[in-house]
């Protein structure tokens, strides 16, 4: 080939490149349009499932899909007999491996002390962390045995009692936090559990026939009709008899109002005893369902407000079971009738279906959230084979040192005896803001000496990465604002937030909190690194969070724009359910030590190590600690990282426009002496703040304003009463303005 031919070929190749680019753009546009049409078709198919007489075959013919594809989109249209589906589900459960016992945690040894970080680290911009958004107990269901609620946020602790002026050092007391041991024992803290990874499931969850019951009125919503039932004395057996007579085949009953488990509660010393007694009310036709396979001995779940009763026909105890559950697991119905609650579930399912074509609403938000997340595990790339589960020792360390939300009532003299006002700000869908980055893989241990040997830039990078640090902290002289880092204390209080100048304490905290303590705009704190764990930065929760945020946004918009009031209410309740799916799904990753509950007939021996909750004429109700299960979805490192960032966000959150920071919010941006209360995902102050609200996850929303002067609340109960008055006053004022 001569030069002239070569030049001509190059020119022709450039022209061909242009044509290829144009063709690629056309294909991309066509694919985008095809995806849009497929999404519209899926939504319409899902919508048709709401019609009582809908048939999968007819929908398949009209849509051009197979019957299998229609059933995958709308499980309610599945023509398979219920008995066949139940047998298939039982077979899958029986084939599942049994949980392995958890080994004992290794002994805890002391850590090395590092030189103090006396300078603030350079400020690196980071998307603002998010705060937890719950004040209720987070339920974490363990499919192997029973359901266990994650511990609630710590009870209110008066911040003023943190340290007396005469003793500036706060002692953690007998509750010393574990540290990273040296030698061979320490190797287990840099390891994962052999053969245990979070894998994408190869099956589709089966929907369960569900009805909604108002136990106060007897109204039952089943499919597109409402019937009035006679519930008799409202015992579990009478409720099941009435429901199954009206809706044969029902597998799950949600109680929307009436809380029958609280009937006669005044006869018991605790509410939990009353609930346990109700769950175990004798019945001639029903018995406690003990399940099969991995669900063996599941029994009832005793909870003061949101119990779960599992029952099977006494004549066939090994047959399918029916659950009685509380609607409060998903959202507070707040007076909504059964039709609205059922419609909320329909809208929730439809919203999730737009992002997961195999989405199924399971019994609880935690189960649903974890199942949906598992279907976002990547099929390509480094983590296509699944995310490894940390060692038992490391999970135990994170459980002991990774607290959840911050709950703190700040008392005089740090705030006025009489408050000029009580202004409440609540962070919208806050967890969703902090899922873009999470720790993955096996962590690398950072010793005190290794951290001290790093350059300033390396130290800052380590703190801003996914990390968890053991530190000794000293509050700087002249500090006059709220505490920044949690300190461990004994008893149920768990964590406090020292703020008295000169106070010293040892704790664990995430990199976001440590970096804030070093680089806040008021004054840097003294932080000594005693050791830490540095993870690889990853995005295991990012896709899950994006899809849930999109579903939440769709439902939130529908709750504001729909012309029908019932639909607006249902959409709002559904948006709250998405919040629960994310919140409790994330809490499920924490996989705290399980608290197993169950019942045993009086004639049989109790399992070893149980705590008796109650007893009647036939059975004993008990609970016991069961340690960590061999759970493939146990990732406390993710929950701890989000919770740490959440606490930091209550103090300092950045508003961004692109990469530019356009504003700040949080307690540190209010005047000293104006912060009254931290409530996990929000704060209360004595004056309004100029914090913008854009309706985005993490934004601070003005939720209540109570005009003063007001006597300072001395307990959480008093604060909650004032908060309710403030919300009512603000709602009335906004109604007047409109």
UniProtKB/TrEMBL annotation:
Highest taxon above the source species: Bacteria
Keyword Coiled coil attributed: yes
Coiled coil among keywords: yes
Alphabetic keyword roster: Coiled coil
Ranges in a coiled coil: 13-40
Protein name per its UniProtKB record: Mucin-19
Species per Swiss-Prot/TrEMBL record: Kitasatospora aburaviensis
Phylogenetic classification of the source organism: Bacteria, Bacillati, Actinomycetota, Actinomycetes, Kitasatosporales
């Amino acid at each position: 080939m001569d030069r002239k031919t070569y030049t001509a070929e190059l020119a022709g190749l450039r022209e061909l490149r242009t044509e290829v680019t144009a063709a690629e753009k056309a294909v991309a546009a066509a694919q985008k349009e095809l995806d849009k049409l497929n999404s519209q078709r899926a939504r319409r198919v899902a919508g048709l499932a709401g019609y009582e007489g809908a048939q999968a075959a007819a929908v398949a013919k009209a849509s051009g899909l197979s019957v299998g594809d229609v059933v995958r989109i709308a499980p309610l249209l599945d023509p398979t007999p219920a008995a066949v589906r139940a047998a298939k589900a039982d077979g899958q459960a029986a084939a599942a491996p049994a949980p392995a016992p958890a080994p004992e945690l290794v002994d805890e040894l002391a850590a090395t002390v590092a030189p103090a970080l006396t300078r603030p680290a350079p400020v690196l911009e980071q998307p603002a962390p998010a705060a937890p958004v719950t004040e209720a107990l987070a339920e974490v269901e363990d499919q192997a045995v029973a359901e266990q609620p994650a511990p609630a946020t710590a009870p209110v602790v008066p911040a003023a009692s943190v340290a007396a002026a005469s003793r500036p050092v706060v002692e953690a007391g007998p509750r010393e936090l574990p540290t990273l041991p040296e030698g061979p024992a320490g190797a287990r803290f840099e390891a994962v559990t052999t053969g245990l990874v979070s894998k994408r499931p190869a099956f589709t969850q089966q929907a369960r026939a569900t009805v909604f019951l108002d136990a106060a009125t007897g109204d039952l919503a089943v499919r597109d009709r409402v019937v009035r039932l006679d519930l008799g004395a409202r015992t579990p057996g009478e409720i099941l008899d009435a429901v199954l007579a009206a809706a044969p085949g029902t597998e799950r009953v949600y109680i929307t109002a009436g809380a029958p488990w609280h009937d006669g509660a005044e006869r018991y010393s605790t509410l939990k005893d009353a609930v346990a007694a109700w769950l175990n009310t004798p019945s001639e036709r029903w018995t406690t369902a003990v399940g099969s396979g991995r669900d063996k001995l599941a029994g009832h779940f005793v909870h003061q407000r949101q119990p779960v009763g599992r029952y099977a026909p006494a004549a066939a105890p090994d047959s399918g079971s029916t659950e009685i559950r509380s609607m409060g697991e998903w959202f507070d119905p707040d007076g909504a009738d059964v039709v609205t609650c059922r419609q909320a579930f329909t809208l929730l399912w439809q919203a999730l279906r737009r992002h997961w074509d195999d989405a199924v609403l399971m019994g609880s938000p935690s189960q649903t959230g974890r199942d949906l997340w598992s279907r976002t595990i990547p099929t390509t790339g480094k983590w296509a084979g699944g995310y490894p589960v940390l060692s038992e020792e490391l999970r135990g360390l994170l459980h002991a040192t990774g607290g959840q939300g911050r709950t703190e009532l700040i008392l005089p003299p740090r705030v006025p005896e009489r408050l000029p006002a009580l202004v409440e700000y609540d962070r919208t869908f806050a967890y969703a803001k902090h899922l873009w980055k999470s720790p993955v893989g096996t962590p690398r241990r950072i010793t005190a000496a290794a951290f001290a040997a790093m350059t300033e830039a390396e130290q800052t990078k380590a703190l801003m990465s996914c990390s968890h640090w053991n530190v000794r902290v000293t509050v700087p002289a002249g500090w006059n604002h709220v505490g920044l880092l949690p300190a461990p204390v004994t008893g149920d209080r768990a964590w406090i937030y020292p703020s008295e100048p000169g106070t010293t304490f040892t704790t664990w905290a995430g990199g976001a909190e440590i970096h804030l303590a070093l680089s806040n705009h008021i004054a840097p704190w003294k932080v000594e690194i005693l050791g830490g764990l540095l993870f690889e930065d990853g995005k295991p929760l990012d896709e899950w969070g994006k899809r849930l945020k999109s579903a939440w946004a769709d439902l939130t918009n529908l709750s504001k724009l729909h012309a029908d009031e019932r639909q607006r209410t249902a959409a709002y309740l559904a948006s709250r359910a998405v919040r629960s799916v994310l919140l409790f799904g994330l809490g499920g990753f924490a996989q705290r030590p399980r608290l197993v509950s169950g019942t045993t007939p009086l004639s049989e021996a109790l399992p070893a190590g149980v705590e008796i909750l109650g007893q009647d004429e036939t059975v004993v109700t008990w609970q016991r600690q069961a340690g960590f299960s061999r759970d493939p979805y146990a990732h406390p490192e993710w929950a701890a990282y989000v919770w740490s960032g959440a606490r930091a966000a209550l103090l300092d959150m950045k508003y961004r426009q692109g990469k530019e920071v356009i504003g700040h919010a949080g307690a540190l941006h209010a005047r000293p002496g104006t912060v009254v209360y931290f409530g996990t995902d929000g704060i209360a102050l004595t004056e309004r703040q100029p914090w913008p609200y854009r309706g985005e996850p993490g934004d601070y929303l003005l939720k209540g304003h109570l005009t003063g002067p007001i006597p300072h609340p001395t307990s959480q109960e008093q604060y909650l009463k004032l908060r309710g008055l403030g919300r009512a006053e603000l709602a009335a004022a906004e109604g007047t303005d409109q």
